[in-house]
Every structure is written in structure tokens, then in C-alpha cells.
Amino acid sequence: MHTTSAIAALWAQNWSDLELARHVAHILMLADQSEEEGNSMTLRSLEVLPFNPGSSPTRVPSTDGVMARSLTAAIAESIVVPTGARYVRLAATQDIFATYGSATATIPGDVTDGAASELLSYGRDHWRFLGSDVTSISVIGSSTPIVTATFFKE
């Protein structure tokens, strides 16, 4: 089953939040050695399977598609999404905030319009699906974290 079809099938079940959480996509990497045309990084494919909350991805292979930023306190930096990337694993040495697309990440105060940057807590990997319109990820930290973004294609 195609990755986006599998995700759509999970969402179409009309489960409660708890039931849906029990079927959130578990991401497994399948080695795919083909390079994207015009891009020097090798992005590997993903297969999405159901898993239980609290689980973490297994069999995570190495990749040639890793970007890194060493942040200055309260200064946003942009990470360019490689051509063909559909998934990213973000990790940082401290808490960070992120936005996806053209908006610049900020350290939020009281935000009630839905435009706050997303908190990505230190100590775990954060996996995100990237729509075809997402060409950059903006990240910011309140101190000086190092952020890595590992990219994969479908």
C-alpha cells in the first residue's frame, strides 16, 4: 500500500482519539539507493504500518539526507527540504520550536489564532509528514541547541 494511502485509510476509520492513537503510523525505513534527480543526497523510502502508543520506529537505517543547524538563542534558522522529501525526523539537544513552510519560527507567548510554532521537546525524535508545498522548516530555541533534520522520501 502506498504510504499516503495507508495514512488516509487510518484517518478514514472514524475511530475515537484513543483508538486512532493506537493505530498511528509506525515508520519503518526501506533502503532505496536511487538518488533524486538534481539532488546530491540519497533519500530512503518509508513504509507506514500501525503501532501502539509508546512505541518508537525500529530498523532505522542510516541516511545521506541529514541537515543540521547550530542555533543562536532566540534566532530562527531555516532548513531547506530536499527535493522529493516527504518525511523528516527532527531531533535537538534542547527544546526547540518549529514551523513548516514559509513562516518563521518564533518562541510563542499567548497565541490564540493557531499560528504558534510547534514545541518539539528534547529527548525524543519528532517525525513529520511533509506536504509537497513544504520547502523549508524554520527552527528556533531559547538557548543554543543543535538541531538535526533527517529526510526520507515515500
Q: Care to describe what's here?
A:
The chain has helices at residues 3-11, 17-22; strands spanning 25-30, 45-50, 66-70, 77-80, 87-92, 96-100, 118-120, 126-129, 136-140, 146-152. The chain is mainly beta. The chain has one domain (3-152): Jelly Rolls, CATH 2.60.120. The model is unreliable at 1-7 and 15-39 (pLDDT under 50).
User: What's the CATH class, please?
Assistant: Mainly Beta
Strands of the widest sheet, in order across it, are 3-10-5-8
Number of domains: 1
CATH fold-level topology: Jelly Rolls
Q: How large, in whole angstroms, is the Cα Rg?
A: 16 Å
Order of secondary-structure elements = HHEEEEEEEEEE
Quick description:
10% of the residues lie in helices and 33% in strands. The protein is built from 2 helices and 10 strands, in the order ααββββββββββ.
Quick tags:
10% helix; 10 strands; 33% strand; 4-stranded antiparallel β-sheet; Jelly Rolls; globular; 154 residues; mainly beta
Protein topology:
Layout: H1 3-11, H2 17-22, E1 25-30, E2 45-50, E3 66-70, E4 77-80, E5 87-92, E6 96-100, E7 118-120, E8 126-129, E9 136-140, E10 146-152
Antiparallel strand pairs: 1-2, 3-10, 4-9, 5-8, 5-10, 6-7, 6-9
